[in-house]
Amino acid sequence: MKKTTIATLVAAAMTSATPAFATDVAKELAAMKARIAQLEAQLAAQQATTEKLEQETEAQASAAPANGGFADNVSVGGEVTLLAQQVETDGENSVGDVLVDTFELEIAADINENVKVSTLIEYLSADEKLDLAEAYVVIGSEDDPLSFTLGKAAHPLLVGDSAAFTDPIAFDIFDAKEGLAMLSYQNEMIQLDTYVLNNSAEGNEGLDTFGLNLGTTFSNGVSLGAGYVTDVANTAGPFSELGGLTEKIDAWRVNALVEANDLALFAEYIQLGKSNLAGEPSFLHLGAGYGTQILGADGTLFLGYSESDEAEDIDDVAGIDYELPEKRVALGVSRSLGENAEVTAEYVREEAYSDTDSDILNVAVTTTF
Description:
Elements: H1 3-67, H2 70-73, E1 74-89, E2 95-112, E3 115-124, E4 129-139, E5 146-154, H3 171-174, E6 177-186, E7 190-199, E8 206-217, E9 222-229, H4 237-240, E10 251-260, E11 263-272, E12 282-294, E13 297-309, E14 316-317, E15 320-321, E16 325-336, E17 341-352, E18 357-368
Antiparallel strand pairs: 1-2, 1-18, 2-3, 3-4, 4-5, 5-6, 6-7, 7-8, 8-9, 9-10, 10-11, 11-12, 12-13, 13-16, 14-15, 16-17, 17-18
């Protein structure tokens, strides 16, 4: 058959089939368009449902603090420290004991976005009693640099940065928690507190003790601070026990912290005003801590030195007959026992104003939860 004849027959066949073919294609296109429209409608409905659920979830989350959900609003934490101690004092028999050194239970609650409440129940072996050490409310949102604290809390005269287990000498008398009203301002660099304290002098229950605290933190790891309070005679227990004390005793503090990689250095100095009984007592604390690996776990090597001057008349702490040390040196090591637990071994040397020296060995296990 000639090529022209074949071409003519093919062309004729295609021409005759075109109308039917076009009709089928049009139907298929229409069906596809309908299906696509149906899928788009289903997708839009699903997106609308998802957005609604997300909005409801966000609304419930933002409303949770106001609704008072326990799990979302309340946090409970604490610390337990068990201590084995051996004390050797000149001219006295050695004393050893195993005791609960510290027990703390802290309960905090976010009442709403502007109000928080915190309480601290504390047992200290020196006091041998369970006490509501802190209970205060903080008013102010997280985005607001201003906040107001009202209640029983630790007033910020003492900073006491230390890596040692045994506290500096100043802690023996200044770790005081009082009724206060405090206005604070804080940003990334500055912390400023101004406060009034409940002066608990006999026959006088008034907010007539005023204090100021300033702290600043620099980007190079250096922190500096200063503080002042108009009267410590009745806000630190030992002074209120000094019979015959006739005037207020003010106090000021300067402190510094330097952190460089795993090394931290501390310094703090507190100076009291002159009184008719206690001279002009002062307290100095220096310390160092170095984070490193101890027997395959995270640990810290530490050294602390503190001294008091003209403080020999301050010999009654929390109602206990106790001679305040003139010097205290603490040297030791702490090692992690896993998450939220560590063991500390420490040697402490104390020198009293009466020239009586004590050597103390502490082994403590501290757990937090």
